[in-house]
Amino acid sequence: MGRINCRGANRPPALAQAIARTADTSFVEHRHARLPVISASEVNRLSPQDRDSGPAKAVAPRGGAGALQTSLIIGLFATVFLLTAVRLSTENQLLLSIGLLALLYLAGWARNAHPDWSRAAVILVGTYVTLRYWMFRTTETLGYQGGLDFTFLILLYLAETYGILIHVMGMFVNISPLTRKIPPLPSDPDRLPTVDVFIPTYNEDVEVVYVTAAACTHLDYPKEKLNIYILDDGGTAQKLNDPDPLRAAAARKRVDRLTSMAARLGLSYLARETNQYAKAGNINEGLLRCACEGDEHDRDKAACVNTGFGRSCGELILVLDCDHVPTQDLLRNTVGFFLADEKLFLVQTPHFFINPTPIEKNLDTHRRSPNENEMFYGAVQLGLDFWNSSFFCGSAALLRRSALMAIGGIARDTVTEDAESSLALHSKGYNSVYLNKPMSMGLSPESFDDFILQRSRWAQGMTQILLLKNPLRRKGLKLTQRICYFNSCLFWLFGFARIIFFVSPLMFLFFGMRVYNASLSQILLYALPHVMASYYVANYLYGRMRHPFFSEIFETIQSIFLAPAVLSVFLNPRRPTFKVTPKTISRRKDSLTPLSAPFYGMFLLAVAGYLAGAWRWASNPLLWDTVLVCSIWNTFNLLLTLCCLGVVWERRQLRRSHRYETREPISIRLPASDICMAATITDLSTTGAGLTTDEIFDIPGDRIVLETEGGGRRQFALPARVTRRDCGPAGMSLGCVFEQPSEISRREIIGFVYGDSRRLKYFYEAKIGRKLSSFRGFINLLAIGGRGSLRNVAGIARIFLDFATGLIVKFYKSIHIERRRALLDETPQGNDSSKHSAAFGYRYGRRGDHADPLEKAGADPGSPDAGVDGQLQLHSSNPRALESPEGDAPFHLR
Amino acid sequence: MKLNPDTPEGEVTVPIPGSLLKTGYNPCNFWVSQHYTDEQCEDPFAPELWTWLKLGEAYLIFELEPVPVPKRVSAIADFLFDPRNIFDTRVNLVIPEVSPGYLKAASLAAAGIALRYEYRAPELILSQALRPGMDNIVIAARKDLPALALGESAGADGPVIAVRHLPEKKSAPIPGQPDVVENPHLALVVVSAKDEAELETACRAFASLSYPLPDSPSTRVANLKLPEVDEHMLQKGLLPGRSYTLASLGKRTTEFRNISPPPLDIELRFPSDLYLSPNTFVSVILHMAYNAAMRSDSVLNVKLNGKFISGVRLDNPRGDYFKGYRVDIPLSSFKQGTNRLSFEAELTPLHTDKCTLIQTENLRLTIFDDSTVTLPEVPYWIKMPQLELFFQDSFPMGRWPDLRETAVVLTEKNLAAANAALNVVALSSQKIGLPPFGLSWLMSYEPEKTRKDLLLTGVLPSLPASVIEKAPIAGIDPLRLSFPQMLRPQFQTAAPIDFWSKAAAPQQQMPRNLSDVNTTSPVRADLSGTLGPGRIALMQFQHPDAAERTVIILTAGIAEDLLAGSKMLWDPIVQGGCRGDLFVVNLDTPEPETLAHLIGPSYYLGNPGRIPAVQNFINTHPVLSLVALLVILLVLCGLILKLLKRRRQQRLNPSAG
């Protein structure tokens, strides 16, 4: 890196190579490049040599050979299934287990040389080992030993069967994940379809909507083909006429601000009469509004639908949650799929969250381990796509309007309207596509309570689909699609299974119930290979997206709360209502979540289990092996519980701006001269950036201009002020804040920060950690559990200490007050308030300590004038930077 | 007799008046009354209080005179073959010829004798002529009856059983007097009929313990109806999935009295091929009551085969009643064959101080005979070969107790081989508890006719080649063996000091057979002449033509050894040393010496699931099956990949699909 001419190439060759390494080079996207004129059929003939780069040549019908092949597969499957039921002697079962595990590891080892064979072999062998265990459980371990014993025995068996079913279906779904590449667009803009962008919002902060809406205006798509709508459910007539005058006033204020913002950005603002059907109703209203202009009270909805397409309604609908900021190339990367397939109704893209989930934050695994969503968006959706079952996830998705209209708009029978709509459309023969390229950046819930709220809705919604729209019996679906949807719905019953897995060893340790009727040798011969194979297969399939044992942690944490929620759906499938997930909560200090109580109970039970086990060991020597197994099982549960205790101890989080790490070249121009210096951006947010340079140079007036090229080859020149400069032997490290004199510059900054999907891809892939072996995963689990529980214990100790200190202070003050009163009684009457303050001072805790630093600074976080530091002002990527001895330290750049 | 503590050893002679004795068993009990005083106080728990009777050195002197054999058919059951008879019993079975029909009849008769002898070993001799000095049983069609055996049965119609005194020729005949006289102390039993079919009926009646033999000199057998038998129906045997009360197991309501009363032992006999699943339990449901005023450390110990497995606290000083106290014992703690379940009460008085009247008459515990033992539902499945099971319940021949699925094959037609086979069959019937009503006899090995469990007897050269190929006898001459220079306990390289090391360490024990030895310095040798003179071999292996069947061969180098060896098999010491698939007995030593080996391949018998043939094949050939499974998985993998490839193309090219 060095000094370069600003008028020359903006990007030095070395940096360009660096970018090229991090960027997705598999597709061509250049706003000004001439795109080839290409039809849908021509698209299909592209790159036949590359399996994933595009459609391959058409496959001739197989006829009799295909049927023979299918029959052969079914026959072999049946044979293999029968073989799982063969009773083997101990030594033969040992031989089989060792042989199969060896084959499994061998198949996994061949991953690089023969990826397809390796994957299929790992799945097949893993399935066999698992089915063999299940068959053993079914045929040899179920027996009536008394009412209660049998009840828990069956419950455990059902829970295991559920887990095995999910595992096997998961393997089926992921047997051949589909990695798609982006189809090119026709060069003639007239041939591009029209697109409506829907940004549904309810009660989110206006600034959240602003950032998303501003980013939408940067979408790289012909403006005449693009309409952006803010669908505001917070400004419905129902809200405006709320009987509570305060609420009505707040709604009016919100409407004013949103309409004003829409006018400034050149967008459409739509609000409906009522909030019926929540988000689904909101989007549907948007669909109809577009189709039917005029008197909204006198609309024939059917006529609207029929006539709507003749007007200016977009052929495609881009749905974005108001906290999902799109990159510029979102449409150009997705629209091509619709041109290639007339029956396509959906192109779903990953939801990419910039902030840690509460679990990540509280366990301190952010950036160390993949988060919970990555397995779904990085692996499962790819597998679903292979079976034409990838489904709409509510946001960051492009849908075909005509397809939606064919089912009467977004489905409304469940609280997961997105998946429900997809199911309906797949049933009608439509296709879906999943493009694994992050092109939007969103927020995940900040607090554990909100996280549970969100997951409860998902669990309830998918259970509703299972009960009300049973995919197994729904007409129009293919068998593979039925399995995929059934798997997606059934997954959410994990809460019951987790609870049973926790309780089962305790049932034996406490009460001597034989809930798992197997000897130690059988456990070693059947269960252990199954567990080893399952973890190996899961790690093989999802290892980069989810580290070992994290599924157990995630599920255990949620199980206590999700199980009752799901149970309520079973009791009354139509009862759940849509609850919006809050995502804007800041936490000023560490605290215990109100949902923590069950985990302390679990912890105590698990510890008591050891005592009971010791007693049982001594009193019943014949059952020492069962005691041993149950104690090991209980230890695993205890570890998971410790992780839960770490999660429920919520760590503080102040947010002015969520900052993410990146590594890309940029030019620094000094305004006083025409000299450009090469630099690298190390982190970025809407408020500022971190930079490094190889050279040390003076910055007159601490003013610089960052010049770079964003997504779509757009040139950016962003003035900034240097707030920190650290010099070292390797160069300089700069911290700077963007100067935002006008709304246009703010929009530019938004365009730069959120516009380039290549940066997201870098970020996305950087976040996905390397695979861990099961053993290292277990060590990881130990470490996480240990750290989390220690934090919890320390926090609880601090609470008690604070409480004790408070009592002492209170006691001291009470004595002090008595003296004061005695003193006042002896002095003449004065001003009441001064007397009061003289006597009591401030309330305990000192108000100033709890004041919002933003409020103290006098900034209105909801005002555009305050910058773009609203909800999407993402927090520091390094939580430790927020910690300071003073407690509420404001965010600062490195 | 007074016990003198100063001379603690002595010999006592006790005259027993003959009038006190009765026929049958006479229990002889020894009671001892001992006491110890300390400071003028009685201490019933003093460790010095013991008396040791050296019963191994004790003996009884009888003066007796045999009574004449009653000339009534019922004497067969209550006199001739009585296990209480203290004399050795030699029985000569006379048949006119060595044919399948006569051999079957003789085997029924032999089994009848063995069954009546319960656990004792009769000496069975098969011949074609009467022999003096022993009881004789003539089994023949009427036309083949020897002249001496003719009598009242000569003109009878139908199958007849008759009992007479044995006619013996005088050594010095007196002219004018018959040279044949009857020996009143020996019996001649005649079982005859007009043909072989009727003869078998008569022998069946003879063999049936429950057949009502009359008090007349002869009886005609008519309308004989045999009991229905099922597979695995052993004498005193228990079946899986069934419950048995103690009463049905021969135990009445039992009361335990005093401090350490004698235990209650219950014999549980499991079929040899019962699959002792490690995760199933035998449930013992006890109904019992105990008295008040016992100390709370009183306990009822439950032991299985001498090992403690559970205990019941009797800790209520007011006494209590248990209805349905449940003790679950893992089935894997049992063994095939006979198990002994013991209940030992340790009852403690409430007060045990010195110089205190210790009340022991209240120490009472009663186990009621409606208490039950319930076996779990488990399959019959076993890994073979295991020759020791043959001496346990005659497995696998005895799966059907009437041996209907068994055939005896004589590889040479002579009396010695037939006599040897007869001994084995009689022994087998005694173990099972039922005569071999369904047993068939063959005079040669014919693969198409012999798809049963087989017992082959004959000298080594006469054995069929096709059978010998599969037999472990292939390793006999020369026999390649590894054995140590001396038997010694195996030592450990590092003593386990913690629990886990101890738990992980293999159970070590003194090797019992040469084949058990795996020391690091064995001698390897090819021994020839292993089956030379003075030795017999018993072998067991999978039937060469029927996978679910087993072949047992009893063979020797010469016929005399074969016969002597078959008689040796009755010896409990010989039976105790038998295991593996090749068992060699040395006949030339005063005490029988045995060698047991496991040489041949393993195979499985039984029905562990829905497809027993496949399952047993897989278990018998595990490596081959594993390879086959892997091949199937790989083929499946390839086919699935083809399907997936096609599917992938369709997904990436939707318009073409």
Protein described:
The complex is a heterodimer of chains A (894) and B (657). In chain A, the strands form 4 sheets. Chain A has a 7-stranded mixed β-sheet, with helices on both faces. Chain A has 29 helices and 19 strands. Mean pLDDT of chain A is 79; it is low at 1-61, 305-311 and 829-894. By secondary structure, chain A is of the alpha+beta class. Chain B has 657 residues and is an alpha+beta fold. Chain B has a 7-stranded mixed β-sheet with strand order 21-20-22-26-25-27-28. In chain B, strands 4-3-5-7-6-8 form a 6-stranded mixed β-sheet. Chain B is flat. The chains are: A alpha+beta (894), B alpha+beta (657). At the A-B interface, helix 3, helix 4 and helix 5 of A face strand 15, helix 10 and helix 11 of B.
In angstroms, what separates the terminal alpha carbons of chain B? 107 Å
Structural class of chain B: alpha+beta
Biggest protein-protein interface?
A-B, 66 and 56 residues
Portion of residues in beta strands of chain A equals 5-15%
What is the global morphology of chain B? flat
Side-by-side strand order of the widest sheet of chain A: 4-3-2-5-9-7-10
Shape of chain A: globular
- Which parts of chain A are unreliable, with pLDDT below 50 for 5 consecutive residues or more? 1-61, 305-311, 829-894
| Oligomeric state of the chains present here | heterodimer
Helical element count of chain B?
Answer: 11
Largest sheet of chain B, order of strands side by side?
21-20-22-26-25-27-28
Helix vs. strand class of chain A: alpha+beta
Low-confidence stretches of chain B: 517-522
- What kind of sheet is the major sheet of chain B? 7 strands, mixed
Rg over CA atoms of chain A: 30 Å
The pLDDT mean of chain B sits at 84
Q: Portion of residues in helices of chain A?
A: 40-55%
